[in-house]
Structure formats: structure tokens, C-alpha cells
Design a protein that fits this description.
Elements: E1 2-6, E2 14-18, E3 29-37, E4 54-55, E5 59-67, E6 79-83, E7 96-99, E8 104-107, H1 114-118, H2 121-134, E9 141-145, H3 152-161, E10 165-169, H4 175-181, E11 185-187, H5 194-201, E12 206-211, H6 217-221, E13 224-232, E14 245-247, H7 256-267, E15 275-280, H8 284-291, E16 299-303
Parallel strand pairs: 9-10, 9-12, 10-11, 12-13, 13-14, 15-16
Antiparallel strand pairs: 1-2, 1-4, 3-5, 3-7, 3-16, 5-6, 6-8
Helix pairs in contact: 2-3, 2-7
The structure holds NADP nicotinamide-adenine-dinucleotide phosphate.
Residues 39-41, 122, 126, 145-146, 148-152, 169-171, 174, 189, 212-214, 216, 233-234, 249, 294-297 line the site of NADP nicotinamide-adenine-dinucleotide phosphate.
């Protein structure tokens, strides 16, 4: 099968090449991959003790080719979307992928395309966990740093649906996009006074801050009121002050039902999904490079025939 692989443990080179189709056991699924969600982590987040060349990638969508008998609820022919992290048998930038029991697997609504489905799992799963942890209440306000990307495009409408008011940052060219997602206030992180601009919107500070982009937590905390909450999606180390609570991302909680609900809302166009680019598999490396710029709007996906 064709796959985009990392060539070796010390190599930063990725190459499209032929590799064997993974073999599965009774605890696993084999998926014929139809679309791949592109994430910045695809270029540097790998399991330990893997064999090279190793197909990269952690999310996608496709059709189940084979289903192990110990993987209940899924059958050959099912249309699924998935997050497959730390998979030693290889990732999702491949014609076939093995999914283990720890993978997050959901059925795709019938009217949803594979390209749409591949754009949702990682960002959806992440932001749903963020909101479980933040426990926002109707009428509260939040600030989201780096909100025009894959996670932000879900973060804003989900907060609005909870009855919260949102201020969000991105560069000016993305402000109309932030507002179309439901942000009440958009600020440009290039402006030296963007924190004050958020403070003019909510003079006492917002109830909670979500720092999506790396290294945005410290300044995001300056927008939060005394005793509010802050969470980092990228793992920034945050030194709390003014009784602000640093909330950790709860990786181990299960948000699968909420994720399914999100798939259904997107399929019914009750929630937005913005796919900036759809790449062919031959251009997978181009897709990864573009994502690495950290200036992508929404999500990009790669499709396979
Ligand atoms: N913890 C987890 O489970 C988890 C899961 C997924 C992702 N992540 C991490 O989350 C981060 C973001 O993910 P993503 O896919 O949403 O990002 P993304 O799609 O790459 O976000 C891009 C957006 O961020 C904006 N941006 C870039 N630099 C910024 C800055 N300094 N301040 C504010 N905004 C900035 C850009 O706006 P402009 O183009 O307008 O500049 C761009 O629209 C990544 O670091 C990723 O590794 C964590």
C-alpha cells in the first residue's frame, strides 16, 4: 500500500512509498482509509519502539475492511471516523490503517462525506474535553487564543451554544471568520494592546481563557478575571496568580457521545465545519508543511481514491 512515512528515528524526512498493509488481530480493525485529517503533531508525535519506515498520522475516516471479533459494534463495510494515537502498526497517512482498542472510533452520519468526517475527530475530541474540564455556565464569557484554526472553529460555536460570550484572537484577515463562528469580539494578537482590547470588552476580565496556540497562556491569563480559569491546549506551563485556577486537559475522560452528537450536528449543518484545503494523497507532504505554518484556517484534509 502507499503511505507517507517517516524514514527513520533520527530522520526528519517524510516520503511517499510502498509499505506492507498492517496485519490485525482479533482486538483490532483494518480500515481502508478514505480521508486523513492533517494536524501539526503528525510531523513529530510518534509512539515509542516503532519500526521504520513508519506511516505518520493519527486521524482519518474510511471503510472497515476487516473487524476483529473482540472489537464490538463495528463490521466490515461500516463508514467510520477515528483517532488512532500511539499505534505501533502505523498511522493514518496510508491506504490502510490498523485501529487498536484504545482508538476513538465513531460511525459517520450517512449524509457526511469522508473528507468532512476526517476533519472532526482530533479537534472535536480535544475541545469537548476542554469544555468538560472548564464547566462553563450560561452567561459566562471566555477568551480563546488562536481561534481561527482546527480547534477554534469548534471552540467558538460550542461556547456560544452553551450561552457564553466569546472573545477570540487571530490575525485581522481572520476576524470576519471568527465572527461568522459566533465570536462577539475579535482581537489581533499582533497588536501590542490586544489584552487591553479584551479588557475593554469585559473590564473585570473573562470567566475563562482557552490558550489553543503554544505560548499564548501567559497573556491569555491577563484577560481572565480574578478567580477565573485558564486551560492550555498545547501544554504551556502556566504560573497562576490572582487566584486563577489552571485547569488541566483531562485526556482520559470519555467524550465519545458528545463527539457523535457533534458529527450529527455538523452533518445537519447545525454546527460549522470549515475545510480550507482538500489535498490529493500525492500532495500529503505539502498538506503537512502548510499545516506546520500555524496559519491554517479551519482544517485541511487529504483524500484517497
Ligand atoms: N492537547 C491535545 O490533545 C491537542 C490536540 C490537538 C491539537 N493540539 C495542539 O493545539 C495547537 C493548535 O491546534 P490547531 O490545530 O487548532 O491549530 P491551527 O489549526 O494550526 O491554528 C491555526 C490558527 O492559529 C492562529 N495563530 C497562530 N499563531 C498564533 C498566536 N501566536 N496567537 C494567536 N493565534 C495564533 C492562526 O491565526 P492567523 O493565521 O490569523 O495568524 C491560525 O488561524 C497545536 O499546538 C496542537 O499541537 C493539542
Amino acid at each position: 500500500m502507499r503511505a507517507l512515512v517517516k524514514l527513520g528515528p533520527d530522520s526528519n524526512e517524510f516520503k511517499l512509498m510502498d509499505v506492507p498493509i498492517p496485519t490485525i488481530n482479533e482486538d483490532e480493525l483494518l480500515v481502508s482509509v478514505k480521508a486523513i485529517g492533517v494536524g501539526i503533531h503528525d510531523g513529530y508525535f510518534f509512539p515509542e519502539n516503532i519500526q521504520f519506515p513508519y506511516p505518520i498520522g493519527i486521524e482519518g475516516s474510511g471503510i472497515i475492511e476487516k473487524a476483529g471479533k473482540n472489537f464490538p459494534g463495528f463490521m466490515p463495510g461500516d463508514r467510520i471516523a477515528f483517532v488512532s494515537m500511539q499505534q505501533p502498526k502505523g498511522g493514518t497517512y496510508a491506504e490502510y490503517a490498523a485501529l487498536g482498542k484504545k482508538s476513538l472510533v465513531v460511525h459517520i452520519p450517512p449524509q457526511m462525506s469522508f473528507a468532512q468526517a476526517a476533519a472532526i475527530p482530533v479537534a472535536g475530541n480535544t475541545i469537548l474535553k476542554v469544555y468538560q474540564a472548564l464547566e462553563l455556565k450560561t452567561g459566562q464569557s471566555i477568551f480563546i487564543a488562536g481561534a481561527s484554526g482546527a480547534i477554534g472553529m469548534f471552540a467558538i460555536p460550542l461556547a456560544v451554544a452553551k450561552g457564553c460570550s466569546v472573545a477570540a484572537s487571530a490575525s485581522k484577515k481572520n476576524h470576519d471568520f471568527l465572527k461568522s463562528l459566533g465570536a462577539e469580539k475579535a482581537v489581533d494578537y499582533h497588536d501590542t494592546d490586544w489584552v487591553e482590547q479584551v479588557r475593554q470588552w469585559r473590564p473585570d476580565g473573562v470567566d475563562a481563557g482557552i490558550a489553543i496556540q503554544p505560548n499564548t497562556s501567559s497573556q491569555s491569563m491577563d484577560t481572565v478575571k480574578d478567580g477565573g480559569k485558564i486551560i492550555s491546549v498545547s501544554g504551556d506551563r502556566i504560573e497562576a496568580h490572582r487566584n486563577i485556577r489552571v485547569v488541566q486537559l483531562p485526556y482520559h475522560i470519555d467524550v465519545k457521545d458528545d463527539l457523535l452528537d457533534m458529527f450529527n450536528k455538523i452533518a445537519k449543518k447545525e454546527m460549522p465545519l470549515f475545510i480550507e484545503h482538500i489535498f490529493q494523497f500525492e500532495d500529503a507532504l505539502k498538506a503537512l508543511t502548510l499545516k506546520g505554518s500555524r496559519h491554517a484556517r479551519g482544517k485541511s484534509v487529504i483524500v484517497l481514491p
